[in-house]
Write a structure and sequence with these properties.
Protein name (chains A, B): Crp/Fnr family transcriptional regulator
Oligomer: homodimer
Shape of chain A: elongated
Pfam family, one (chains A, B): cNMP_binding
Organism (chains A, B): Flagellimonas spongiicola
Order of helices and strands of chain A: EHEEEEEEHEEHHHHHH
Number of domains of chain A: 2
CATH architecture of the largest domain in chain A: Sandwich
Domain Cyclic nucleotide-binding (chains A, B): 28-110
CATH class of the largest domain in chain A: Mainly Beta
Number of helices of chain A: 8
CATH topology of the largest domain in chain A: Jelly Rolls
Number of strands of chain A: 9
Largest interface: A-B, 35 and 35 residues
Largest sheet of chain A: 5 strands, mixed
Structural class of chain A: alpha+beta
Distance between the termini of chain A: 17 Å
Helix content of chain A: 40-55%
DNA sequence: ATGGAACTGGGACAAATGTCCTTTTTTCAA
DNA sequence: TTGAAAAAAGGACATTTGTCCCAGTTCCAT
């Protein structure tokens, strides 16, 4: 549920130790909007610590959460490749520490550093790989099944992530989430 | 709705002209299963002509269509990066012409050819970029709105793609699709 | 500590969608 | 060309989920 990328986190740490200068450290309090949908930015973030949500919101203000991002996850990188505006907003859930690198340095690194290049491709590939079955499952199974599944992969999700965000992640309303949770509590010792 | 990648198609054509030997041409009739979910393959396909569907099926046999693939789209490439089994099945809808390259030659090309590397990264990035708003929209809006949207981006979709596949693409049942189409026909001159 | 804002929980009803089934139409191979 | 199989259309009903509320609770900034 909260995606991480340890390999990339480790490698970037190595890079920073070797050549600190092109990376900057940033800190955000909880609930801060870091990237706003349909805007332009000139840097890529990598999460060192904390949890963020990446979401699309529509004209009616509905949010649909794409991913919860944890340690080692990048965001703002897609715009390096196509130079378009962002498709998602990113907002910290907990306090968040990131390191950032400019688009141009990121591109240089991609060209010059084969290991980095491979890790970035792998990270993109994982984003595709994880999203596919998730949406498929969410559509094809009732809400309760989805909650049980989340509970299995991340037992503390209910206390860590606000209810509204959980609902927006599954793609349902808060009301439906509550109904399902109530029934699960009645049925199962898990909840 | 049917994704294409002209730039990649063109570039691969150039590569084939320059060094034919590492690419093979393949042809499949309509409705052929080319890649089966949870299996291993050792080559990457790129579509030269025709339409295919990429889908996940669950234990109950429900299919959820991830993408319709047209000219210039790759499939089977994710498995080069992580060496895992496939997450999707790919099946031709029309007769399909592809060119294929072995995993090892694909990897060599990624390392040696910066242009190819960039185009592949861009292709991955696009897969992410297109998938996000689509799922968001599908979840957040009624079926009719989704159909109108498809009609706008690809007016002939109803005659080209089987109803069952359209339903599986939107993530609804055939029954619901028919209901919605009937109402749209009554309401709008478009359908 | 306290008052307002935001989160949480749930009742009552409406609407959308799914399930199950039957009928009609189209497709395609013998 | 024709008969079996697949695809499409739709009736009747059940179920799920959403919408619109309101009430209780928690969380902060003053």
């Amino acid at each position: 549920m909260i995606r991480v990328n340890e390999e990339l986190a480790d490698y970037v740490s190595t890079l920073i130790n070797a050549r600190n200068s092109i990376w900057s450290k940033e800190t955000y309090p909880a609930k801060t909007l870091i990237i706003k949908q349909d805007s332009r930015y000139s840097k890529v973030h990598l999460i060192r610590d904390g949890i963020a949500k990446c979401y699309i919101s529509d004209e009616n203000g509905k949010e649909f959460i794409q991913e919860f991002l944890g340690q080692g996850m990048e965001f703002g990188e897609l715009e390096v490749f196509d130079r378009l505006t962002t498709i998602c907003s990113v907002e910290s859930i907990t306090a968040l520490h990131t390191v950032t690198i400019s688009h141009s340095n990121y591109q240089k690194l991609l060209d010059a550093d084969k290991t980095f290049n491979k890790l970035v491709i792998k990270a993109l590939s994982d984003k595709i790989r994880f999203k596919a079955p998730r949406h498929s499952y969410q559509h094809g199974y009732p809400i309760e099944a989805n909650l049980i599944r989340l509970k299995e992969t991340f037992p503390e999700f209910i206390s860590v992530i606000p209810k509204k965000d959980i609902a927006n992640y599954i793609g349902i309303t808060g009301r439906s989430l509550n109904r399902a949770l109530k029934e699960l509590k009645a049925k199962s010792a898990l909840f």
